[in-house]
């Protein structure tokens, strides 16, 4: 089974695809206070939970969602159809770094997808090319709540603390105007949904694919429970281009 399909299965019951509750997502999008006819770009959109909620809040807005996973794009299209928003959401199956924007956007989203641009600094540089002067970015990124041990840092990657993460986001013409640090309950809900949904699928699909999915689930769950739970944090920053 390919990694993108496994991810799509694991996120079926948690389409936000990150340690963020529905209420938090709603609050962050509302805080953007988007204008009428807003243009929204969702980089690494997954199932497009963020941009779909923004379209519901601003009935005259339009959005572009970009992702490399055909499974995520298909799920986003189904969600848009079900919510009557498919006429205002355009989906693009392409790497986020290759998306050829032709007009600036009022809000650019990149939540949990900064790896597409080589990290947070590269993401902010890319978003600067897409957003209009005075426009907004909503960026979600990991940070270390506590200093990890060496093995965990090598397994997950290099992150600063929260102060360093905000400083990196603001390093080149951006100002943080709001944000949210995911709490342990949001993390646990996300991880239990991710692992539980994948386990349930594996049980319903015995054979090589089910066994592989179960092995991936157990490896992920072990890394969470014995590694980064309470150590790795996640912050969603609403930033304004100044």
From TrEMBL:
MF terms (GO), sorted A to Z: methyltransferase activity
Residues covered by the Methyltransferase domain: 40-135
UniProt-listed Pfam families: Methyltransf_25 (PF13649)
Keyword Kinase among UniProt keywords: no
Record's keyword terms, sorted: Methyltransferase, Transferase
GO biological process: methylation
Keyword Cytoplasm: no
Domain of life per record: Bacteria
PANTHER family linked to this entry: METHYLTRANSFERASE (PTHR43464), SAM-DEPENDENT METHYLTRANSFERASE (PTHR43464:SF3)
Protein name: Class I SAM-dependent methyltransferase
């Amino acid at each position: 089974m390919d990694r993108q399909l496994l991810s799509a299965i694991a996120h079926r019951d948690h389409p936000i695809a990150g340690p963020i509750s529905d209420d938090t997502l709603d609050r962050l999008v509302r805080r953007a206070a988007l204008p009428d006819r807003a243009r929204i770009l969702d980089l690494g959109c997954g199932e497009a939970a963020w941009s779909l909620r923004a379209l519901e809040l601003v009935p005259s807005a339009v959005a572009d969602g970009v992702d490399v996973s055909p499974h995520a794009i298909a799920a986003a299209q189904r969600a848009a159809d079900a919510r009557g928003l498919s006429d205002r959401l355009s989906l693009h199956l392409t790497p986020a770094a290759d998306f050829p924007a032709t007009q600036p956007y009022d809000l650019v989203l990149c939540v949990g997808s900064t790896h597409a641009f080589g990290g947070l600094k590269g993401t902010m540089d890319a978003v600067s090319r897409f957003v209009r002067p005075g426009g907004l970015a909503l960026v979600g990124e990991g940070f270390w709540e506590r200093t990890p041990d060496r093995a965990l840092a090598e397994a997950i990657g290099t992150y600063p603390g929260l102060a360093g993460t905000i400083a990196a986001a603001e390093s080149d013409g951006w100002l943080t105007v709001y944000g949210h640090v995911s709490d342990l309950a949001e993390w646990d809900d996300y991880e239990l949904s991710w692992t539980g949904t994948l386990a349930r699928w594996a049980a319903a699909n015995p054979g090589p694919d089910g066994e592989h999915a179960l092995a991936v689930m157990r490896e992920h769950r072990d890394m969470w429970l014995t590694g980064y739970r309470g150590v790795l944090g996640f912050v969603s920053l609403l930033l304004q281009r100044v």
